[in-house]
Structures are given as C-alpha cells and as structure tokens.
Model the fold of this input.
Amino acid sequence: MFIGFNIGFFPMHIVGIMGMPRRIYTYAAGLGLQPMNEVMTFGAFMLGVGILISIVNLFYSLRRGEIAGNNPWNADGLEWAMSSPPPPYEVVHIPAISTRHPLWDDFEEDADPDDERVLSQARLTITSSLLDAVPLAVASMPNGSLVPMFLALALFGFFLALVYQLLWLCLAGLIVTFLLGCYWLWPRPIKGEL
Done:
C-alpha cells in the first residue's frame, strides 16, 4: 500500500508542474503526459491490491486468527503490563521502575509492602519530571461529564455560524465555548478536603 500510494500520487505533482489540467476526463495527446499517467495508474492498482490484501487479512484474522496475549510483542514498556482487554481498574499500586526497560528487568514494579503508592481517595495521578520521573505533585483527573459534548456542540455552532457569516452567532458560540471550557477545566476541591 505504501509503495502503491507513492507511485500513484507523487507523480501527480510532477505532471501538474508539467501542465496537466485538473478536473477533466481526458487531455491532449501531445502534452507528453502519457508515460507518467501510466505510472500513476499502475500505482493506483498496486494501492488497490494492497487494500484488498488488508481486507482479506482482516476477515481471515477475524475467523481463524490467533487471539493476541497480554504482551504479544514482548515489549518493555509498562503500558504492555496491562491485561488484554483492560479491566476498568487495573493498577492499585503506582508502579516503581528501576530501569528504562521495566518489563525486561528482574525488579517487581508493583511491589509495595507498606501501601505507600496507593491513591484511593479520588481520581488522582502522580505528575513527575520528564527525564528522571521524580514525583512532583498529585493531579486530580476529571470525572465523567457531559460538558465536553456540550463544548463540542458549541464549537460546531460557532463554525456553522462562521460558514454562513452570522457574526453575532459566531461571537455567541465563542463565548459559550469559552465559558464551558472554563467550567470544565476549573479546579474543584476533592470531596472530603477543605
């Protein structure tokens, strides 16, 4: 598919520079574009065959394919430590890592005998530095809410009003979008805290 896509679409830039007109079903024979158009046609057929092979592979895998395990690639990152399909609440203890390849080393990432790395009060997560993963703070994750859907609808209304050049509705859509975004992102105290 990759090769067919590039053979099919990259020459279009070249024939455009050579003067091939757009949005017509035929072109003059004396322009010298026939060889490039044949190459593009070959690339389009190759792309089509690649897509067909992908579709056949999808249906074959659905019927006879082997179910992938928890870490089918034997990857080294912690995201592959989760079971597949992931349960709603997989990790009780925040894993501690000792190397860049935590699933390949002998260190037990989930070991927490004193229960020091449990965040069970609310939807919390630790924020850390990028390079050394030094814990910096505890961030509160937002709860489930319909506000993002209303925000998306307000943004849709803004862009729809923009298409029809209804500037007052555009302004109203921007204001509603801003207010909904502020409401959604405004920090709220966790229940039980002051």
